[in-house]
Design goal:
The chain is α/β, with parallel strands linked by helices. Helix content is 33%, strand content 23%. The longest helix is centred in the last third of the chain and has 14 residues.
Length: 136
């Protein structure tokens, strides 16, 4: 199984699936995976991925998905990674807030928080929610 994206979502998905015996390859465009994760948690996750023989390919940018794999650029060249039955995409997130727009003229006050403002970690969204709750 190929997981496109080595952020928290992709790496934790790889961890979960590898624990159930799936052969996993994580493809990440940055030079390392889960760079944004807290150090202690990151080290524990990387140890589990290594123990479960998860292949981690960094510095690779996806250019095109093909039957059973992907064509990517890495180290100045193009290469095809093939032999995957499944592909999981964990390649970034964007803010999404259709409810805020739909309600803005129907209620007196709206507080938009979390990924509706900007895609980010659950920790950041929880901190923002706490600040809004105290202010209200």
């Amino acid at each position: 199984m190929l997981i496109g994206g080595g952020g928290e979502t992709g790496a934790e998905t790889a961890d979960f699936l590898a624990e159930y015996g799936h052969a996993i390859t994580v493809l990440e465009m940055k030079s390392a995976i889960v760079e944004e994760m807290q150090y202690v948690h990151r080290m524990a996750l990387l140890e589990r991925l290594a123990r479960n023989k998860v292949e981690i390919i960094t510095g690779a940018t996806v250019r095109r998905f093909v039957d059973g794999g992907v064509i990517c650029e890495r180290g100045g060249g193009r290469e095809t990674l093939a032999g995957f039955d499944d592909v999981v995409l964990a390649m970034g997130a964007v803010a999404y807030n259709p409810l805020g727009d739909a309600l803005k003229d129907k209620v007196a006050e709206i507080h938009v928080i979390g990924d509706a403002v900007k895609a980010r970690s659950a920790k950041e969204a929880n901190e923002e929610a706490s600040r809004v709750a105290v202010a209200v």
